[in-house]
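Lab notebook, bench 4. The sequencing result for the construct came back, and we need a structural model before the next group meeting so we can plan mutations. Quick request posted to the team channel:

Model the 3D structure of this chain.
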Amino acid sequence: MTRSNYTGAACALALAITMSAPAWAQPAPLVRFDIPAQELGTALTQLAQQSGRRIHFSSEVTRGRRALALKAELSVEAALETLLRGSGLGHRTGSDGAIIVERRTTHVETDLSDVTVSEGADILVTGSRIRGAVTASPTTVITAEQIRQEGRADLGAVIRDLSQNFNGGQNPGVFLGGPNGANQNIGGGSAINLRGLGPDASLTLMNGKRLTYSGFSNAIDISAIPVAAVERMEIVTDGASAIYGSDAVAGVANVILRRDYSGVTTAIRGGTTTRGGGSEYQVSVTAGSAWLSGGFLLAYNRGKTDPIYARQRNFVVGFADPTTLLQQSNHDSVLFSGHQAMGEAVVVSVDAYYNRRDSGSLRRIGTELTNSPTNVQTTLISPAIDLDLSGGWTGRIHGTYGHDENSYKTIITDAVTGQSIYNSSGCYCTDTRTAEIGVEGPLIELPGGALRIAAGGGYRHNSLFVRRPGNSNPAGGSTASSFAYGELSIPFVSPAMNVAAIHRLSLTGALRYEKYRLIGGELTPKLGLVYEPTPDVALQGSWGRSFKAAGLLQQFQRAYAELATARILGGTGYPTGSDALFYVGPSLDLSPERAETFTVTLRLHPRMVSGFNLELSYFNVNYTDRVVSPVNNIFAALSNPAYAPFVTYAPTSAQVAAVLAATGARFTNSTGRDPYAAVAIVDNSLTNASADKVSGFDLNGSYRFDFVGGQLELRGSGSWLSGTRTVLKGGPPVDTVGIIYNPTKFRGRAGLVWENDGFGLSAFFNHTGAVFANYFAAQQITTDAFNTVDLNLRYAVGERRGLLSNLEFAVTVDNALDTPPPLFAASIANRPNYDSTNYSVIGRRISFSVTKTW
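Done. Here's the predicted structure in C-alpha cell form:
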C-alpha cells in the first residue's frame, strides 16, 4: 500500500471514529408546538403553556425582540433554541428545574442542524420555495457558531474547509497559468466550486437572492459578505436549476444573514505565518437593533493580507525574486440588512452591500517583471416586499441591482534597468438586474397534511463590458431571460397518521422554464422523494436536470487571428512557405451546458442517541455540452483527425476575408506573407463539445454530548470523488479526478469542539488526497497527500463591570504542524512545483483575536 493510500485510510478511519457514538444517552421527549410569529415574550409564555415546563424571563430581556413562527414536533430545548435564534439570548436550567432565559455573554447563533421541522412550519430552506418542505437533496448547514468555533474570519476560508468543494478556480493562492482557464484569481476573491465543475457551475445566493458576477468567469466572490453578518450558510450539493435557474449545476450555497440582532460587537484579529509573509489583520464592527415590528443589521469589515514571496518558501524552486505565491490584498466591505412590518400583512425589507478589494501579484521570468494590480468594487441592493395573504398563502416581490468593476493592470518592466516594456489596463465590468414575483401556500388538505405549491416568474438581465483605454468599441454585450416556475410538495404520510413502517413519506416536484434572448428556452424538471420508516432513519432520493447559460465573455469576447506556418500547426506534406490561419473568436450560437443529476441519501438521527446525526449520500452528475475551445493542442491542429471538423482546407478568398473582418486590428501576421494564400483555416471558436461525468459519496456527521463538565461535539465530513472528461464529442474519456489541477479522489475534515463555562477548544484534522502530476514531461509522479491540523482556543469573560465585560479572546493556529505542500518537478518556468489548486503554500499561520459585545 502506498503512503497516499495509508493516509487516506487513516483519515477514513478517523472520520469513522468521529462518527461513532455511545448508546447510553437517553432520548429527549418530543412535544408538538404551534406558536405563531409574535413578540418573543408572548412566544415564550405559549411555549411554557404547551410544554408544561416553567420558563422564567424578565420583560426587560425580551423587550423589542420577536420570534419566528414555530409549528413543529421538538424537544423543549430545541423549541426554545429555535425561538431564541438571533436574539442574543440564551437559557439555562435552574436548581429547581425551571428554565431561565437570560442574555448571553456573547451574541452566539444556535446550531439548528438537529431540528426536524414538521409540515407547515414558517421556515424556508435552501433547495425549495415551499415553506416547511422536507427537501430530498443533501444539504450541509454551517452556522455562525460553527464558524466561530473553528476560528474562520471570512466565508472564503469557510468554503475552503468544505469537503465537497474544490479550491481551484477563484481563490487566493491559485497560481496564474494553470492549464484550466478557470484556475485564475484576478480579483483576489473566493468562489465556491462544488465537485470541481467550475465556479460558474455553483450558484451563490444571499438570503435566497442572486448576487453579481465578478470578473470574466461568471464567478461570485463569497468573501465579499462580512462573516459577522452571517447567521448560517446552507449548501445544497445537488442540481437545482428547476428551483433557481442557470448556474445551479453542481449545487447552491445560500448565505443567510442574521435578522433580529440587537447590540454592538467589535472585533480585531491579527496573525502571521511562521515561515514569513502572509501576515493579516482584520477589524470589524457589527451593530443592530430589533423592535416589535422590525429591525436592522449593519456590518463593516476591513482586512489586509500581505503577500508571500517565493523566496520565503525554500521548497519552492524555479522562481526569480520578487515573484509572489500569495497575492497581497486590502479589503473593505459594508453590509446593511433591514426589515419593517407595515401593518399585519406586509413586511418591507432590503439587503445591500458594498465591497472593495485591492490586490496584486508579481511574476518575474528572466529579466521581465510583471506587476498585476487589480481593484474590485461591487455594489448590490436588493429590496423585497413579503405579503401575508389569506388562507395561509404568502407572496413575495423582490428585485436586485448589482454592479461589479474588476479593474486590472498589466505592467511589465525590465527587472534590471527598470525600463518599461509593456503597460495596459482595463476593466471587466458587469451589471445584474432581476425582478421576481412569487406565491406559496396550501392547495388542498390531504391525510398526510397540506399539499403546498409555489409558483412565480421574473426577469433577469446581465451585461459585461471589457473596457480598455482608448478603445471606443469595447468587447462585451448583454443577455436577458424571462422565467416561470412551479413547485409542489405532497405529504402522503405524516408522523401524526401513525402508519406502520412509514413515519413520513413525501414527494416534491419542480419545473422551471427559462427563455433567453440569444439561446432560446430551457425546461428543467426535478423530482424528490423522502421516506422515513421511523423517526430515526430517513431515505431521500432526487433526480433532476440543470443547465448553465453560456458565459458573457464566452459569447462576446473579441476575436483574434494569427497567420502561422502550417508546420507549426502540425501540417505535413505542404510546400515550404505554406501558412495557415488560426482563428479564435466568440460564438453567439452557443447552446446551454446541460446536466442530469441524481442523488440518494441515508440519514440517521437515532432518538436513543441524543445529539447524533449521520448522513451518507451518493451523487452522480452527467454534465454535457460544455463550452470549450475545441483545438486544445494547437501544434496538432492540422494533424489530429479529431480536429478535422474545425479545419477548413484550401479556403476561398471570401472565407479568409470573413476571418480578417471579424478580428479587425487583432490580427497577427507572424510569417509576413499573404494571408489569402493560406492553405487552411483552423477555427478554434468556442463550441459545445466537451462533457464531464463525476460521481461519488459524501459522508457528514456529528455527535454532541456532555464531557468533563462541558459539551463535546465530534464533527466530520468526507467526500470520495471519481470523474472523467470527454474533450470532444465521440472522443475517448480521460480521467480528471486525482490529476494535477483537478479535484483529488478524497477530501476529509474531522475533529472535535469542547466548550465549558466560557472556555472553548477545537481541533481538526484535514486530509487532501494525492494527485498524479502528469502535466510535466520532466517528471510524472503521484504526489504525497496533504495532511494538516487546525487548532482554535477561546475564552469568553462574561458579564463584568467595566471594559472587561463581554470580552472574548481567541487564538487560531492553521496548519499547526507547518506541513509544506506536496512537491513535484515543474518543467515550465512560470508554474510552481506544487499544485496550488489543492495544496496551500501558506504553512503555519497563528492568529489572535479579541471580540467585545457592548
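The mean pLDDT is 86.
Will bring this to the meeting.
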